[in-house]
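Course assignment 3, question 2. Fill in each field.
Student: A.L.
Task: Predict the tertiary structure for the chain below.
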Amino acid sequence: MLNLPDMFRRNIHLSILFLFLFPSLCPADWIWTPETGKFVNPKWEVKPTPEDQLEFAQSFKDLGNCKKALVEFKKLIKAYPRAKEAPEAEFFSGQCLESMNKPYEAYLSYQLVIDKYPFSERSAQIVGIEYNIANHLLENKGRSKWAQVVIGSDDRVVEILRTVIRNAPYGKYAAIAQYKIGLYLKEKGMYQEARDEFEKTMNDYPTSEWAQASKFQIAMADMNRASDAQHEQKVASVAMEEFNEFVKTHPDSQLTPEAQAQMARLKDKEAENNFVIAKFYEKQKNLKAARIYYKEVAINYADTSWGPKAQAILIKIGE
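Answer field:
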């Protein structure tokens, strides 16, 4: 009786003989290699050195076949994880994903370089690329770099911007990334959350130009929050004080004219609120109370659109 090792060898020999006698029945992707003494699938084989594998993968990238290039880059990373070519393969994978219009997947690939190979020479370059990917997702529109309108955005942009800050907390893109998190949340109507992010920009990067812009945006967030607040007048007053403080401390800022315009809008809104109250008392035939509010508008809001209206009504009903 044959023992197990003999039976195993016999089966191997019979299998090899069968494949040589009937090659048409052998899967086309598998070939016999006498050097290794086994069947291999060239599709999954890597080149003998990481340098050769990287060059092979890049050849597909250069031809614009990023799908195939990605496969070959991943094979290099798996086969040679400690080689100096491994982070390069991860980096080039990110480039391929960008060209395939997969920005978030590209970000994940780029970040792997920093996470797995923290001493890579690509780290600083990758931080800039990740910031640009976030900008792409933001789809910024508008002429002013300080108060861009952010629409059609991808919520994952906040994740990417926070990663930029974490990768280089005092780097070139940290302050603006922090500022844009606030800007994004403000445009999403998350005014309190946005305010917190702008305050963080001011606290963490007080000498940055974005700290100044954040002070303005805090006032803007409060002004927008006023329309949603239960105590609208109180929140609006806070916003007015913030705009006023900004104008006083930054009289030469590019944002000062906008701050002044917002103050005028807030003042006009305050005047309107008082005018509506006066009109309510007038309809209730409570002319004494109506006169108090009309006088408030006519005197303290004379430079708004409601001042002349209140003055005209006072003449009509008697001061």
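Instructor remarks: Residues 256-283 form the longest helix (28 residues). Residues 70 and 93 are 6 Å apart (CA to CA).
Grade: pending
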